[in-house]
Write a structure and sequence with these properties.
By secondary structure, this protein is α/β, with parallel strands linked by helices. Helices cover 34% and strands 22% of the residues.
C-alpha cells in the first residue's frame, strides 16, 4: 500500500544537468499540471520517433493517454521530463511490473521503462541523463531492474541502454529487442557517468571561453563604465569572432568602433556569449533577451547580489533559476571576466586592461576579482603566460570544478592555478583534482579559511586541516598565499619536475648559499654543501658551474644564488644568458635563481630569450645523467621516497617539460628575491613529483572474504525500523560489537562493574589480568585523571583499586566502571570516520591522547580508502615514528592497522546509514592489535548519494 508521504511531490528529484553539447536542461517529475506541455511536446516529435516509441503510427495523444502520462503515484508509476525554458524536450517513465509483465506494486522490483526525445534535441545526451535520474528514482523506490522493448531500427535508443555501463541481458523477441538492465551501480556505470560528466562540463566551459560571437550589453555612449571597458578590452585584444555592443538608448551605428544595437534581437545573427554590465535591477530583462536569442553563456559583471546581503542572495537565486531555465551557463554575478589566449580566439572578456597577459601554459581561476587582478599583474611582471583565466565572482553557477573539467583535457594548459575562498563540493573537487593532478599540477591557494558572517558563499564545515589532508590525498599542491601560488606556478610552468629531494646550491655569496641550505632543511629537502664561486665570479663561471651541477648524478635540482656587481645591468643580461645556455646544454632538472637586490637579473630571466639563444636539447632525460634512487628516510614512509626518474610537469614519468615557444615561458628560469621562496617552490615540486610517482599505479580497495555485508544491512535495517528520517541513533555496546564483527573487527567483551563484587565476578569470567575503567562521559579515555587502571592480576588488587576509584572520583553510578581483559601492550591510536554533508565519509587516524586532542596531529582520507591511501594515512601524522621503532622501541604491526582502516572504510562505504565510527583506543602491538572501545552512530541514509546521477549544484 502506498503511504501518504509517497504521494507527495518528490522535490528532491528535481535537478539541473549539463548536456553533451555544454547546454543545460532541468529534469523534474511530471505533474497533473503538465497536460498542455505534454501535448505541445508530442506535437513537435516526428512521426518516426513516435513510431519508435509506440511501435505503430501514433499521430496524437488521446485524453486517456494524457491523463495516464501526467498522473503518477511517484512509487509504482513515475514520469520525468527534461525541460528548457519551461517546455518539455524529452520524457521518460517507468511502470512497475510483476513476473508476468503486468502492472504491479511493491514488493515487485522490476519496471518497464520508455523514453521519448524531441528530434531537435536528439544527440545532445538527454536520454542518457534521463536514464541516470530515472534509475536513481527507481532504486530509491525499491526497483532493481529495468525492462525495455526497442525496435531494432531504433539504434540510438539501443545505444543509450548498452552504453550505460549497467549489467544487462539482451534478446530478440517478437520483432523487438528486449533489454533488461540491473540498476545496481557498477564500476563501469560509474566510470561512464563520470566520463559523460567530464565531457559535458568541459564542453560547457569551452563554449564560454571560445565563442564565435560576443555581445556586451550595457555599453555606455560616453565610453565610461564597466560595459565600455569590457568592450574595449575585447576589441583591443583582437578577438577573432564577431563583436556587438548593445545599448537600448543608442542612436549610433558604432560604439567605440564596434557595431551597436538597441537590443540583442536587432543583431540578426547568432550570439554565443553575452557580457551583461547593467544595474542588477535590469539584469533579468537582459537575461530573458539572451535566452530568447539563443545565447549559450553569460558573464554577468553586474554587482548587487549575494555579496550585498540577504536581498542580494535571493536576487542571485532568481538569476540562476532564470539562466538555467534557458539552458545557459553563467559566470558570476559580480564577475571580473574571462580570458582565452588561444591564437584562434584571443578573447579578453574581462575588466583586465589589454594586454592582460601573453600566451602560455598556466590556467588561472579565482573567485575574487581583486585577487585576480593581483595574480594577473604578478604573472605578467614575471614573464609568465596564461592559457586561460576565469574570475567567477560569486560563482552562482560555473565554479572551480567546471574549470578543472575543462583544464583536464585542455592541451594548452600545463599548470592549473586556483585561488579558492570556498570548496562548495569538496568531495567532487578532490575527485576531479586527483584525476587532473595525475597529468598536470594543480596548485591551490585557499582563502576564507575562517569564513566571516555574511560571506558570499558559505564554506564546508570541515576543519581546514582536514581539507588540507584531503587535497593532499588528491595530489593538490596547497599553498598559503597568492605569492606562493605565483612562485610555485612559475617553477612548474617552465621547469621539469625533480627526480628527488637532493638540491645543489651554487652562487657568488657564501652567506646566501647558507641561507638557501637552511631553507632546504626546513622544507625537508636534502641539500648538498653550497658551492661558493666568490664575489669575483663571472657569468662564464656561473655557466660552467651550473652545467656541471646539471650533469652531476648527485642532485635532482639546482638553486643558483646571486648578489649584485658594480655594473648590474650589463652583467645581469650576461648572467641570464649564461644560465640559459647551461640549462639548454643539460636539460632535465629544475633550476631556480635566488637574487638579492638584482632586479635587473630577474627582469632579464623573465624576458623572452633572444632569437639567437641556444635552443634546449630535443633529447630526452637521458641527455642528462640522473641520480640513482635516494635511500629511504628514517621514517618508513613510501610517500617520502624519491622518484626513480625525472617527471615532467605534464605528461608521463621521464618526459621533459614540453617545448611551448618563447611566448609561453620556455627557456625562462624562475627568479625569486628570497631563498625561502625559491626553496618552497622546489619543495612543492618535489612533493608533487613523489605523489605522481606513488600514484602511477592506482591503489586497490581489497575484498575481504569474511565480510558479511548482507548481514550488516539487515542489522541496520532492523535497528532503524520505525526511526524518523532525522533521528540519529548511538548503538549500544553490544550492537556496535556485533556490527563491527560482521566486518571482521573484534572488540573484546566489556562487563559492567556497578560494585566491587560485580567487578570480581566479571574478572572471574574474563580471566586475569584485567583492566578497570570508568566509562562516564567526563572520564572516558582519560587515563591521566586516574580513571583507567591496568594489569590487575588478583581479586584483592582489583577490590583495592575499585575502592580507590570510587573514593577519588565518585560513586559507581557516576563512574559507570567496567572490567575488560588485558590485551598486549602497544601504541594507543584512534580510528574514526564521520560523514560531512559536502565531503561525504572521511576516515581519520591519530595517536590517542595528547597528540590528536591537543596538538591536532590527525590525518584524513576520503572513503572509500585504498591500500595506498591507508598506508599514507598512518605515515602522514607527525607522531608516526612512534609506530616504526622510535628510539629503539619495537615497531608495531602496521599491516594489521592498515587492514583495520580498510575494514572501517568498507563498512562506512557499504552502508551510508553508518554516519559515525569511533574506535578508541586501538592498541597496536608488535603483533596484532586490539580495539578496546567502539562508538557507532547510525541514521537513515539520504535519498541521494555520491553514486547518484549527475546534477549541477542547486540554488
Amino acid at each position: 500500500m502506498t503511504i501518504e508521504s509517497d504521494l507527495s511531490y518528490p522535490a528532491h528529484w528535481e535537478a539541473d544537468v549539463v548536456l553533451r553539447d555544454g547546454g543545460t536542461a532541468r529534469i523534474r517529475p511530471i505533474t497533473t499540471d503538465d497536460a498542455g506541455r505534454l501535448v505541445s511536446f508530442y506535437e513537435q516529435v516526428s512521426d518516426e520517433s513516435k513510431y519508435y516509441r509506440f511501435f505503430a503510427p501514433y499521430p496524437r495523444l488521446s485524453d486517456r493517454d494524457v491523463r495516464r502520462f501526467t498522473h503518477h503515484d511517484y512509487v509504482d508509476r513515475v514520469g520525468l521530463a527534461a525541460t528548457i525554458g519551461g517546455e518539455f524536450i524529452a520524457t521518460v517513465r517507468y511502470d512497475r511490473i510483476g513476473p508476468d509483465g503486468r502492472p504491479a506494486s511493491t514488493p515487485a522490483d522490476e519496471a518497464e521503462v520508455a523514453f521519448l526525445v524531441q528530434d531537435a534535441h536528439q544527440g545532445r545526451g538527454v536520454a542518457s541523463a534521463l536514464l541516470e535520474h530515472i534509475g536513481a528514482v527507481a532504486r530509491e523506490r525499491g526497483i532493481r531492474r529495468f525492462a525495455a522493448e526497442v525496435l531494432p531500427a531504433n539504434t540510438k535508443m539501443i545505444k543509450v541502454f548498452t552504453d550505460a555501463g549497467y549489467q544487462q541481458k539482451r534478446s530478440f523477441e517478437d520483432g523487438s529487442v528486449h533489454l533488461t538492465l540491473d540498476l545496481e551501480p557498477t564500476a563501469e556505470s560509474l566510470a561512464v557517468q563520470r566520463a559523460r560528466e567530464q565531457r559535458a562540463e568541459a564542453r560547457s566551459v569551452q563554449r564560454l571561453l571560445a565563442p564565435g560571437s560576443v555581445a556586451v550589453i550595457g555599453v555606455s555612449r560616453s565610453g565610461a563604465g564597466v560595459g565600455a571597458a569590457a568592450l574595449r578590452n575585447l576589441r583591443d585584444t583582437g578577438f577573432h569572432g564577431h563583436l556587438y555592443a548593445v545599448n537600448e538608448a543608442t542612436d549610433a551605428d558604432l560604439l567605440d568602433g564596434v557595431r551597436a544595437y538597441r537590443s540583442l534581437a536587432d543583431v540578426g545573427a547568432p550570439v554565443d556569449l553575452a557580457l551583461i554590465a547593467v544595474p542588477a535591477r535590469r539584469v533579468p530583462d537582459a537575461v530573458a533577451e539572451c535566452g530568447e536569442h539563443g545565447v549559450q553563456g553569460l558573464v554577468v559583471l553586474s554587482a548587487g547580489y549575494a555579496e550585498s546581503g540577504p536581498v542580494g542572495q535571493e536576487r542571485q537565486r532568481d538569476l540562476l533559476r532564470q539562466v538555467r531555465s534557458y539552458g545557459m551557463r553563467l559566470i558570476g554575478p559580480n564577475a571580473f571576466g574571462v580570458i582565452n589566449t588561444a591564437p584562434d580566439v584571443e578573447l579578453n572578456a574581462s575588466l583586465a586592461p589589454s594586454p592582460a597577459t601573453e600566451r602560455g601554459p598556466i590556467g588561472l581561476f579565482t573567485q575574487s576579482g581583486a585577487i585576480g587582478i593581483a595574480l594577473l599583474s604578478g604573472l605578467l611582471r614575471r614573464g609568465a603566460g596564461l592559457s586561460s583565466f576565469v574570475s567567477a565572482g560569486n560563482r552562482a553557477d560555473v565554479s572551480g570544478n567546471d574549470i578543472l573539467q575543462y583544464w583536464y583535457e585542455d592541451e594548452a594548459t600545463d599548470v592549473a592555478l586556483m585561488y579558492l575562498e570556498t570548496l562548495g563540493n569538496p568531495r567532487k573537487f578532490t575527485r576531479l583534482a586527483r584525476r587532473t593532478a595525475a597529468v598536470k599540477p594543480v596548485v591551490v591557494a585557499r582563502g576564507g579559511r575562517h569564513t566571516p558572517a555574511g560571506h558570499v558563499v558559505p564554506g564546508t564545515r570541515l576543519p581546514d586541516a582536514t581539507v588540507s589532508a584531503l587535497l593532499g590525498q588528491a595530489g593538490v599542491i596547497r599553498v598559503d598565499t597568492v605569492t606562493e601560488l605565483v612562485d610555485v606556478g612559475l617553477l612548474l610552468a617552465g621547469q621539469p619536475l625533480p627526480a628527488g629531494p637532493r638540491v645543489a646550491i651554487l652562487g657568488n655569496s657564501e652567506s646566501l648559499g647558507v641561507l638557501t641550505y637552511d631553507a632546504c632543511l626546513t622544507e625537508g629537502l636534502r641539500p648538498l654543501a653550497p658551492l661558493d664561486l666568490t664575489t669575483a665570479a663571472s657569468p662564464e663561471d656561473f655557466r660552467v658551474a651550473l652545467a656541471e651541477a646539471l650533469a652531476s648524478p648527485d642532485n635532482d635540482a639546482v638553486v643558483v644564488t646571486a648578489i649584485p656587481w658594480v655594473r648590474e645591468r650589463e652583467l645581469a643580461d650576461d648572467l641570464a644568458g649564461a644560465l640559459r645556455e647551461a640549462v639548454a646544454e643539460r636539460p632535465g632538472k629544475p633550476v631556480a635563481v635566488v637574487h638579492v637586490e638584482l632586479g635587473a637579473l630577474a627582469d632579464a630571466l623573465s624576458a623572452a630569450p633572444r632569437p639567437d639563444a641556444p635552443a634546449p636539447s630535443p633529447q630526452g632525460p637521458g641527455a642528462s645523467p640522473q641520480a640513482p634512487a635516494a635511500p629511504a628516510p628514517a621514517a618508513p614512509a613510501p610517500a617520502a621516497q624519491a622518484p626513480q626518474a625525472p617527471v615532467a610537469a605534464k605528461g608521463e614519468v621521464g618526459e621533459e617539460a614540453p617545448a611551448r615557444g618563447a611566448a609561453a615561458g620556455h627557456g625562462r628560469i624562475p627568479a625569486y628575491p628570497a631563498a625561502e621562496r625559491a626553496v618552497k617552490a622546489i619543495a612543492e615540486a618535489v612533493r608533487y613529483a613523489q605523489w605522481r610517482q606513488a600514484n602511477a599505479v592506482s591503489g586497490q580497495v581489497p575484498e575481504f572474504e569474511d565480510i558479511d555485508e548482507a548481514g550488516a544491512a539487515a542489522q541496520l535495517a532492523e535497528l532503524l525500523a520505525g526511526a524518523a528520517h532525522d533521528t540519529v541513533l548511538t548503538l549500544t555496546e553490544a550492537d556496535a560489537r556485533a556490527l563491527l564483527a560482521r566486518y571482521g573487527v573484534r572488540v573484546p567483551t566489556t562487563l559492567p562493574a556497578p560494585s566491587a563484587d560485580a567487578a570480581a565476578r566479571a574478572a572471574g569470567i574474563l580471566g586475569y589480568p584485567v583492566a578497570l575503567k570508568t566509562t562516564a562521559p567526563h572520564l572516558r579515555h582519560r587515563a591521566d585523571l586516574g580513571g583507567v587502571r591496568l594489569d590487575l592480576t588478583t581479586e584483592a588488587e582489583l577490590r583495592r583499586v575499585y575502592q580507590e576509584l570510587t573514593e577519588l572520583l565518585g560513586k559507581p553510578q557516576e563512574l559507570l566502571p567496567v572490567v575488560q581483559a588485558m590485551v598486549p601492550r602497544g601504541v594507543d591510536t584512534v580510528v574514526r570516520s564521520v560523514i560531512d554533508p559536502a565531503a561525504g565519509a572521511v576516515l581519520s587516524f591519530g595517536l590517542a591522547g595528547v597528540p590528536s586532542e591537543l596538538l591536532g596531529d590527525t590525518a584524513h582520507r576520503l572513503v572509500p580508502a585504498t591500500d595506498r591511501d591507508v598506508a599514507g594515512l598512518i605515515r602522514s601524522i607527525r607522531a608516526a615514528p612512534l609506530l616504526f621503532g622510535w628510539r629503539g622501541s619495537d615497531p608495531v604491526d602496521t599491516p594489521a592497522l592498515e587492514e583495520l582502516l580498510l575494514r572501517v572504510s568498507r563498512l562506512v562505504d557499504d552502508h551510508p546509514e553508518v554516519i559515525g565510527v569511533s574506535l578508541e583506543p586501538v592498541v597496536v602491538a608488535t603483533e596484532g592489535l586490539s580495539v578496546l572501545s567502539a562508538t557507532i552512530r547510525v541514521a537513515r541514509p539520504p535519498a541521494r548519494t555520491d553514486l547518484g546521477p549527475r546534477t549541477l549544484p542547486s540554488y
